[in-house]
Amino acid sequence: MRASDTEVLTPGSAAQAVEAFGDGRGITVFAGGTILMPEIAAGRYPRGGRTLMLDRAGLDQLDQLGGDGTVAIGAMVPLSKLAGSRIEPLAAAAREVGDLEIRAQATIGGNLCAPPAAESPRGDLQAALLAMGARVRSAGKAGERTESVEDFLARSEDETRLVLAIEVDKPRRASYLSLRRPHAHSYAAMTVACAQNDGNGGVRVAAGGVAPRAKRLHGVERALAEGASGEDAAARALDEVDPQDDALASAWYRRNVLPTLITRALEQLQGG
Ligand SMILES: Cc1cc2nc3c(=O)[nH]c(=O)nc-3n(C[C@H](O)[C@H](O)[C@H](O)COP(=O)(O)OP(=O)(O)OC[C@H]3O[C@@H](n4cnc5c(N)ncnc54)[C@H](O)[C@@H]3O)c2cc1C
Fold first, then answer.
1. Confidence (pLDDT) at 253
2. CB of 124 closer than 6 A to ligand 1?
3. For the chain, how long is the longest CA-to-CA vector?
4. Which CATH architecture does the domain made up of 173-271 adopt?
5. CA–CA dist 32, 272 (Å, integer)
6. Is the distance from the beta carbon of residue 106 to the nearest atom of ligand 1 less than 6 Å?
């Protein structure tokens, strides 16, 4: 790609980034670039549009909101920072992404917005965010809004949003497990995250690698709430997801292993 193929915008604040993003048409958001740089190298980067560089937009803060364990994570917070944050199960998911160099560069916003790809895992933090009941603050068409990460991931492919921050409540108990495929970077073929907040809420369960984007497993959660054992509840997962073949694992293998991965993650729920 030549420099003249795209207009580069470098906002100096979140407000400027929102203004430059507008309704998102013809604009590519560039965060850590660990997905986009290879796209440039492969000649697949969109030409003729605008590129919004977020590195100076001040979105890299990790803030405690009050004393109740709620944390606001800026979209540009690198995975290396999350890996050491002890915000579980998000920290565990971040620790397993790529390698040191990738984690230092890759951001949570890029992981949440990673376009699904069959040949390599890209959104391994999504299951953890679903299990935590995270909220996503974003800007775009019709202005700013905050919604559940589940709704954010379910939006149509055509609706591009600029993620500004992700808010999570630190769970009382959490667990994270992945099924890994040995490779230079040991990619995760499937991930499972569980979390339970303070109060009377039940356990939330989510899985990655079973659909184009990670999915919350409401049937498993309902079975647990009704008193089913972890193993019996985990068996319900296959009623709500239909894993596909890809370069990392076959659909058959995923279907056979997913219930066991969920059962083990439930056994490993840690915390008070
Ligand atoms: C060698 C290697 C190993 C990897 N291993 C893993 C792995 O194990 N697990 C895993 O999950 N990923 C892996 N990845 C993929 C990638 O590193 C992560 O998904 C990373 O979190 C992407 O973040 P980024 O900031 O680099 O995104 P970018 O490359 O900057 O952007 C990715 C996508 O998200 C969009 N985007 C970025 N930020 C925002 C925002 N704030 N609002 C709206 N859209 C936005 C971009 O437009 C683009 O479409 C790997 C990548 C490489 C190169």
1. 95
2. yes
3. 61
4. 2-Layer Sandwich (3.30)
5. 35
6. yes
User: Which of 33, 45, 64 lies closest to 3 in space, CA to CA?
Assistant: 45
- 98-131 per-position pLDDT tens digit: 999 999 999 999 999 998 876 676 899 999 999 9
30 CB less than 6 Å from ligand 1?
yes
**pLDDT for 228-270, tens place per residue?**
999 999 999 999 999 999 888 999 999 999 999 999 999 999 7
Please give the Cα distance from 127 to 194 (Å, whole number). Answer: 9
Domain spans of the chain, in order of start:
173-271
Atom of ligand 1 nearest to the CA of 28: 47
User: Does any ligand 1 atom lie closer than 6 A to the CB of residue 113?
Assistant: yes
Radius of gyration for the chain, computed over Cα atoms and rounded to the nearest angstrom: 18
Ligand 1: nearest atom to the Cα of 98: 5
Residue 231 Cα, ligand 1 centroid: separation in angstroms? 33
User: Which of ligand 1's atoms lies nearest the C-alpha of 34?
Assistant: 26
- Quick one: pLDDT band at residue 183, thresholds 50, 70, 90? low
